[in-house]
Amino acid sequence: MSAGPLLPQLAPPLKAPEFTPTPTLTPVPTLLEVLRGLDAGPRGLTEGQAEERLGRFGENRVPDTRDPSWARLLARSARDPFTAVLLCLGLVSAAVYAWGTASVILLLVAVSCVLRASGEHRADRSTAGLRRLVATTVTVQRRADEDTAPATREIPVEELVPGDVVRLGPGDLVPADVRLLRSTGLTVHQAALTGESAPVPKSAGESDPTGTGPTGTDTAGTDPAGTDTAGTGVFQQPHLCFQGTSVASGSATAVVTATGADTRFAAAHRRTGKPPATSFERSVQGVSWILIRFALLTPPLVLMANAALRGRGLETLPFAVAVAVGLTPEMLPVLVTTCLARGATLLARTHDVIVRRLPALHDIGAMDVLCVDKTGTLTQDRPVVDRAVNAEGRDDPEVLRWAAAAAWWSLQLADLPAPDALDEALLTTADEDALMAYDGVTALPFDPARRLATVVVRTPGRLGTHTLITKGAAEAVLERCSLPDEERTRLRALAAAQAADGLRVLAVATAERPAGTRPHERGLTFRGLVTLRDDLVPTAAEALAGLAERGVTVKVLTGDHPGTAVRTCRDLGILVAGVLTADRLDTLTDPELTELASRTTVFARCTPEHKTRITRALQTGGHTVGFLGDGVNDLPALRTADVGLAPRDAAGVTRDDADLVLAGKDLTAIGHAVAAGRHAGGNIASYLRITLSSNLGNVIAMLSAGLLLPFLPMLPAQVLVQNLCFDAAQLAFAYDRPAPSALRRPTVLEPRALLRFIVGFGALNAVADLATFGVLAFALRGPGDDEALFHSGWFTENLLTQAVVMVLLSLGARGTSGRRPGPVTWSAAALAATGLFLPMSALGAPLGLSPLPGVYYGLLAAVLTLYAAGLMTARARQERRSPPVA
């Protein structure tokens, strides 16, 4: 546990306070107060002080990032609802001394738990390897002792302590919460905390109470037109930087104010709480409780019915337990784990997608809504030039040439470490020869207060005259141009129209000045506007089209301006059904948001709380929701969603909490994951439909026969052997290939729909079983004359009908043609062969089975033919009336 920061981020208290989600901005401590509170100075700590503070405050790491042990994963697997059903039946079997049944059930439980725990353990080890790809050192300034000059060296991030002085440069991760001491052209990416796409300017000066940034560069809190919308906030304080952010440009020296669990990054991680049950977990729990009720009710019902109608006592208890076991899909935990583990292994091997929690693979197959951020997912973290237009709004390459010259000489003359994103876009587009035609004289770099930058260049062939080039926010540049009021108003409207279309706007103006005079940004000649848009991810449009074909709707949740988000959607071919901004969202009740969220495509200016609320509203509306996020600000929504996705380079705690980790923010990989999830989910749903309907039919028939016959319709050992044969055959569902149509719709495991299916087809199966009574009565001339023949005949019929069910219901009315025999077909054939040949084999006698007369097989073929015709008719009718369960 950390002892708390020496100084909180905003005010020096008498003791370290607990983290508050919405800190106040007053009073703001001065730099001197910060250093005093930390008992530190700009020269850095001594090695002795650093060692003492490391022992007192602990390592600089986010808590609870360790992966669970294999034993803990095994224990978590044992809490699966279906495993609980099997354990209950195993205990009942042991209580009646049916040790064989109990042993088989406990073995299945152990195999299932081991398979699931092993799969999740492999996924955890893979994500642990991903963490090593993140930078783990920081440049710190320390002294050997009080009298020694400070020296800089690299240390592990974990050894950083409050009071350390660190140095930051382009591309560096901010290793802790810091207060800037000195800075040069510093801009910081804060998307991991705030969701803002553009770098935010930072400086070592005192706080900026307005929270405004450099208009014209679309920084945090500004829209493309240059209007401040962010208001105040701790993350807009220019002298503060936070763990989880990264340096975009410039350099700085800063003092560490908080580390480890005391950072805002860690506090946001703590506030997310325990994730709710996912779609798959809720569905499994619903089906499990149905099975639990049936399994627990079956033995007493069998006992009471036999005691009342046949005068039988406890001698029927083994049969009753065997019937209950026959109702339960014993292989379900094994089959579910096998299906999901095979899909997860395939994704990791072929598409670099790591499934950290196996049930999430089913959830992503059931997903019908995917929530994504704009920046980094649909667009790259850089703008590109869209157009350059003159004052009349017509394309003019000269405007771009002037803007690029200003960007080039600002970079050269102001001694900036690297161009900012907008200047880089201008330089990438401009002609290099045109840039070299000028000779720079001086530069006034971009200033957030003036919202523009100016350079002075020598124009070839114009001795004694220099050209002043100014670029920046449209409003700021137009104020400095010599224009009539009506012309200035018209040009403002032109810039606003471009901004309203989701573009970032830079205005460009020039002026001729005598050589040697100071740059004077007045009386300029307006040249035109350069518009920039977000650079689209190359694979985004194709990936979005693929998701749409699979029935997945994409919704954009962004902290950016709504116009920018709508423009991106339009460029990618996303039909924008509606736009909802944060201020409007705050006025909606939860029911109103639930109704509106389903028909809204873009949610703009979103905070982490808004993202979480939108995700929950979509779930309330009946959707299975996936959320793709990379920052700690996405963590609450990522945990709320049915399936959370994160790229490999996401914030550490976000990646560790995600259900699926992607090699990159590529929607194509999500499409592959959806297909794998639907493949696995389709096989699981097919298994449940076929197994439960067949088992229910057998149980109904056995209960009816037990009451109608003077003897048990089947011995307990025969029931268990039949059940084990069927279970072994059904493992083929884990390796089956669903029809292509199954991959074009979400695989939702709906308990009520599943129950309707198994009741309907189970009743049909029971009719076929009971029809076998007549066949046996005719073939054996009285079933009471030979119990062994009756048991053998019904044993054979049960396995044959189950084989027919496996083949016909797995294919369905729409998929019986054009498909090669798959694993299920071959497994069903083996099951049928077992039913035909086991009674006449040497293994039949120990089980109480005997060979059947030839006439029985002819009559049984007629029953099976009618049963198959009934199955196909019922399946065709069910598919016409409603979509399949899966």
UniProtKB/TrEMBL annotation:
GO molecular function term, any single one: ATP binding
Regions of compositional bias (Basic and acidic residues) in chain numbering: 50-61
Region of interest (Disordered), ranges: 40-61, 192-232
Stretches assigned to the Cation-transporting P-type ATPase N-terminal domain: 27-98
Membrane topology: Multi-pass membrane protein
Annotated compartments: Cell inner membrane
InterPro entries with a match to the protein in the record: ATPase_P-typ_cation-transptr_C (IPR006068), ATPase_P-typ_cation-transptr_N (IPR004014), ATPase_P-typ_cyto_dom_N (IPR023299), ATPase_P-typ_P_site (IPR018303), ATPase_P-typ_TM_dom_sf (IPR023298), ATPase_P-typ_transduc_dom_A_sf (IPR008250), ATPase_P-type_domA (IPR059000), HAD-like_sf (IPR036412)
Alphabetical list of SUPFAM superfamilies matching this protein: Calcium ATPase, transduction domain A, Calcium ATPase, transmembrane domain M, HAD-like
Protein keywords: ATP-binding, Cell inner membrane, Cell membrane, Hydrolase, Magnesium, Membrane, Nucleotide-binding, Phosphoprotein, Translocase, Transmembrane, Transmembrane helix
Catalysed conversion reaction: ATP + H2O = ADP + phosphate + H(+); Mg(2+)(out) + ATP + H2O = Mg(2+)(in) + ADP + phosphate + H(+)
Annotated transmembrane regions: 753-779, 799-816, 828-849, 855-874
Chief location bin: membrane
Pfam family, one: Cation_ATPase_N
Gene Ontology cellular component annotations, sorted alphabetically: plasma membrane
Biased composition (Low complexity): 208-232
EC number: 7.2.2.14
Function statement: Mediates magnesium influx to the cytosol.
Family: Belongs to the cation transport ATPase (P-type) (TC 3.A.3) family. Type IIIB subfamily.
Name of protein: Magnesium-transporting ATPase, P-type 1
Organism: Streptomyces griseorubiginosus
Lineage summary: Bacteria, Bacillati, Actinomycetota, Actinomycetes, Kitasatosporales
Originating gene: mgtB
